[in-house]
Each structure stands twice: as structure tokens, then as C-alpha cells.
Write a structure and sequence with these properties.
Strand content: under 5%
Number of strands: 0
Number of helices: 15
Radius of gyration: 18 Å
Order of helices and strands: HHHHHHHHHHHHHHH
Structural class: mainly alpha
Length: 280
């Protein structure tokens, strides 16, 4: 057990500089684009799903929270909101970079999330678009919900905070996985998560819906350790949009609508994951 603890701490600490650099770049982009992004998305019109899928690819959940704000006030369409939720990568990219994942894998994940978000967004707007009255005016989710994306801190301080939080989640997840690998083994761990089974995308999509960055960290780590297949990982990463879902349920009083949005995201995650499993 002591060896597991030491290995976990060492593996986590050596990732710190990579995570910090990744978050520093991401924070710089978010600080410069947040206000512009809100204006771009709110004025996007028919280009909403395309712009949403594109901007959602920028790591962390800041843009998905912004989109939630804009949807609650009915400034953007449901399709645009779903497109952003599906393309949001949360903590996935920093983890993949710090673990030195192949560039081909990283680009493949981003391409799939972009295409799925784009197509889903336009289809949803095509079949479900309808006029809706505004629910709440002048509501600042980032300020009211304390989600950590309001950028009141300096870029360096924000990067340190995100790096520390992510490293903490990563250490906990890695410790649990190391114990499982040590005492159960990769083969049996894969069986537990039903690797290669058509049930696996259902489970992964459910994990992805957990409104915390820990879900994307867990799914990414499980894939990198070989416990999840590529299709199953995609299922979880598609449904993971950070704290945005939590903010949606807390701020939007139409519970039925919130559940429908949740069901749509889950359904898409499962279908895409199953499709990849069956075809590849």
C-alpha cells in the first residue's frame, strides 16, 4: 500500500508542470474570449450550433456555463446549447497532454465531439425549435453560482487554482485506479467496466453526466489505462459538460425541460458510443 501511495503521489506531482502550462494557455484564451464569446454566441442566429460546437472545444466548462446562462434567458436556441454541451471537453485535454497521449487520439476526440455537436445541434433546432419567452433577465450565472469561471483572478492565479483542483481530483482517481490495478488487475478491471460490451457506453455516458470535472478525469484516465475502449470513452466525454448541468437544474425552474435536455445528451452519448463500438 505504501508503494501505491508513493507511486500515486509521484505520478501526480510530475504532471504538475504540464497541467500548469496547459491551464495557463487555456486561461489566457478564456480571459480574452469570454466576453467576446458571449456576444458571438448570442448573435449567432442560424450559425449557433456551428459556433457553439467550435467554441465548446476550448477546455474547461466556462463556455458551457455561459451557454446555460444564454439559454435560460432564451438568447440562444436549444440546439446551440446541446452543441456546446456535447463539444465541451472540460478537463480532458490537460489530462491527455500531461499523460502524453498520441496527437492522433487527441485530434480524433476533438473532431468527433465537434461533428456530433454540430449535427445534433442543427437537428434539434430543425425539429424542436419554438418561440420561448425569456425566463430571467440580467442573471449572471458565473457570479451567482460561484462556479469559478468569472475570471476575477489573474491568469496565473486562476491557472494555479485550476491546476491544484485538477491535480487533487487526478490524485484521488489515480490512487483508486492504482489500487484496483494492483489487487484486481487490468483484465478484471476491464471486465468491471464491461470493456468491449455494448452496455459499457450506457455506463460511461452516465458517469459523464456527473456535474464535476472529476467525471472527465476518471473517464480519460480509465481509457489511458486500458480499462475503457475508445467508443466507451467518447460516450462519457460527450455527456460531460462540467458544472453546466448542475447550474441548469439550479437556475432553470422548468424541471421537465431540464430532464429532457439531460435525456437528449445521454441518448446522443450512448448512440455515438455504440456506433463507434460496432463499426470499429
Amino acid at each position: 500500500m505504501i508503494d501505491i501511495i508513493l507511486d500515486t503521489l509521484f505520478d501526480s506531482l510530475k504532471l504538475f508542470p504540464f497541467l500548469f502550462i496547459a491551464f495557463l494557455i487555456i486561461e489566457t484564451i478564456e480571459h480574452k474570449l469570454t466576453k467576446k464569446t458571449k456576444n458571438i454566441i448570442s448573435k449567432s442566429g442560424k450559425l449557433g450550433p456551428f459556433l457553439g460546437s467550435s467554441l465548446g472545444l476550448i477546455p474547461q466548462c466556462g463556455f458551457s456555463v455561459i451557454a446555460t446562462n444564454l439559454y435560460i434567458t432564451r438568447i440562444i436556441s436549444l440546439g446551440t446549447l446541446i452543441a456546446i454541451y456535447l463539444s465541451t471537453s472540460d478537463e480532458m485535454l490537460p489530462i491527455l497532454i500531461s499523460e502524453k497521449a498520441p496527437l492522433k487520439i487527441i485530434l480524433s476526440i476533438f473532431l468527433i465531439k465537434f461533428i456530433v455537436g454540430l449535427i445534433s445541434g442543427y437537428l434539434i433546432d430543425l425539429f424542436f425549435r419554438k418561440k420561448q419567452s425569456k425566463v430571467k433577465e440580467n442573471y449572471d450565472i458565473c457570479h451567482d453560482e460561484h462556479c469559478g469561471c468569472d475570471h476575477n483572478h489573474s491568469i496565473i492565479k486562476s491557472s494555479i487554482i485550476h491546476t491544484t483542483k485538477t491535480l487533487l481530483f487526478l490524485t484521488i482517481v489515480t490512487f483508486i485506479l492504482n489500487i484496483l490495478f494492483e489487487y484486481i488487475g487490468e483484465h478484471y478491471l476491464s471486465k468491471i467496466f464491461l470493456k468491449g460490451s455494448l452496455i459499457a457506453p450506457f455506463i460511461s455516458s452516465l458517469i459523464g453526466l456527473i456535474p464535476t470535472c472529476g467525471s472527465s478525469i476518471m473517464i480519460t484516465e480509465l481509457y489511458l489505462k486500458g480499462a475503457l475502449s475508445f467508443g466507451t470513452m467518447i460516450s462519457g466525454l460527450l455527456t460531460g459538460s462540467g458544472v453546466a448541468i448542475l447550474v441548469l437544474f439550479k437556475s432553470n425552474k422548468d424541471i421537465k425541460e431540464n430532464l429532457n435536455i439531460l435525456a437528449i445528451i445521454y441518448f446522443i452519448g450512448v448512440v455515438v458510443g455504440l456506433t463507434i463500438e460496432l463499426l470499429f
